[in-house]
Write a structure and sequence with these properties.
The protein has 480 residues and is of the alpha+beta class. The chain has 16 helices and 20 strands.
Length: 480
């Protein structure tokens, strides 16, 4: 059986990295140019996109995007300028699995409030520590620029995947999150309209904001809730809450314990009137954890029947670097107790070496369907209603989980539309020359996946709005 997805955090420090002193001497413009050039080279030499005949757009942006980003890099004077140039390039691929992460913590500032933007394009205050700025007030413009245009200028080119339109509803809350070194570009004043219709002009006073408070405020601004990893009963509703599939090291034991708890409580869950399989906050991880959870909830035979009906044929990009990092991933999976994943990655690494030696850039790992799905006489073990609850963050292995759960009989998908991913998947990570960022890129491309590129799941019953708190969800589920 072919293994779906692992998001890895493996860094390989290039031997050619300059000394720390030399890095300090470089301007932010030079650092941005170096990292953009390095990202281009890593992607060109190791990502399946540049040699994928079915996706010409990828190679076009590989070159065009570099030109656009290098233009922006030349004007970089601060670390924030550097970051905008680099993320403009990487975000332009419209691929959530191709991303950059900062290595160092950057001081953040805010004006004492955050906003969110709804599907109609209306921007409102959703978090405020200032009495004169009430939550719910509409923000119309800042520095005489409409709020929608500000988002298109300052947020979406760097944070939003244009291939997933509803992602704009999440990233919009970053409009009033600034970098401490970027004060020259911070907004000066804004106009808000209260519920009474009274318009007010605000002069913004940007203050430091610590990371923990920022994370909490962003969750509130976006209406996000991240539940604990647990099996819980809230009122008359049972929740199997899975906020992540990204469990390694000591965390692997937590996930193993969760699978054991689901098995221990299986009889209770199967007889309950309402069960919520809850992936709020789950941005992915390893699909083997997702499979184990699904098997504990239904059965290994049922999960195998569904997954065996998928055509999971992939093409892997062959490179020396990819083979090396795949072996590192195999060792990590073995340490986490994922023996099947470890064996499969060791096999793939050997095939990468062989393909590279024969001059091939891609090689096929065929995994055609082996079944027609669940047998017609299959009966779900659940006697009550089963709901699959998603928010807009469900991505990667969470989507692999959705592929299975939404095909179980009787399951009702509720909540918000999920995120989405492209056909490029299975990630590793590389440090960029400046030492300020790491590039995460994919090793393989699906050829016959059920979900197309950047295709999301839309709920059968859509969340009516507001924060998805445990109490609110339990009350809502009780009405369905």
């Amino acid at each position: 059986m072919h293994v779906n997805l692992v998001i890895a955090a493996v860094s390989l420090i290039c031997a050619a990295t300059a000394s720390a002193a030399a890095k300090m001497e470089k301007s932010w413009a030079a650092k941005a140019a170096d990292d953009i050039a390095a990202a281009h080279e890593i992607i060109q030499d190791n990502h399946p996109g540049p040699v994928d005949p079915l996706n010409p757009r990828f190679e076009l942006w590989l070159e065009k995007g570099r030109t656009v980003a290098l233009q922006k890099a030349r004007a970089a004077r601060t670390q924030s300028d550097y970051w905008r140039a680099l993320t403009l390039y990487v975000n332009g691929f419209e691929d959530g699995h191709l991303s950059v992460r900062r290595n160092n913590s950057v001081g953040k500032v805010w004006p004492g409030f955050l906003t969110s933007t709804d599907a109609t394009g209306t921007t409102r205050i959703t978090v405020s520590t200032i009495a004169s700025i009430p939550v719910g007030a509409q923000l119309t413009d800042c520095d005489q620029v409409p709020a929608g245009r500000l988002l298109d200028q300052q947020v979406h080119p760097y944070l939003t995947n244009a291939g997933i339109p509803h992602e704009r509803l999440l990233t919009a809350s970053y409009l009033f999150v600034g970098d401490a070194d970027d004060r020259a570009n911070l907004l000066k004043s804004c106009t808000i309209v209260a519920d009474t219709g009274v318009r007010s002009k605000l002069v913004l006073d940007w203050q430091a904001l610590d990371d923990e408070t920022l994370a909490q405020d962003l969750r509130e601004a976006q209406g996000r809730v991240e539940p604990p990893l647990a099996v819980r009963q809230i009122d008359d509703v049972w929740f199997v809450s899975l906020p992540s599939f990204n469990w390694w090291g000591a965390g692997a034991a937590q996930m193993q314990a969760m699978v054991g708890e689901i098995k221990r409580q299986a009889a209770t869950l199967h007889s309950a009137s309402r069960v919520v399989v809850d992936v709020r906050g789950n941005t992915g991880g390893n699909s083997q954890w997702a499979r184990r959870v699904a098997a504990a909830l239904w059965s290994d035979a049922a999960v195998s029947a569904i997954t065996a009906s998928f055509d999971q044929t992939v093409d892997w990009r062959a490179s020396t670097q990819n083979a090396q990092l795949t072996r590192v991933l195999a060792a990590r999976s073995a340490a986490a107790g994922l023996a099947e994943d470890a064996r499969d990655r060791t096999r793939i690494a050997a095939r990468m070496d062989a393909a590279k030696a024969s001059g091939k850039t891609l090689f096929t790992d065929a995994d055609p369907p082996e079944s027609q799905g669940l047998p017609s006489d299959y009966t779900s073990p659940f006697r009550g209603k089963v709901f699959f609850l998603t928010d807009m963050r469900c991505a990667s292995a969470c989507l692999d989980f959705a592929d299975v759960v939404t095909r179980m009989p009787g399951v009702i998908h509720v909540g918000q539309p999920t995120s989405a991913d492209t056909l490029y998947i299975d990630n590793v990570e590389m440090a960029l020359p400046s030492g300020n960022a790491r590039l995460s890129y994919s090793l393989k491309v699906y050829r016959h996946r059920l979900r197309g590129s950047n295709q999301w799941y839309t709920p059968q019953v859509v969340w009516p709005g507001g924060r998805m708190t445990d109490a609110a969800v339990a009350k809502w589920i009780a009405t369905l």
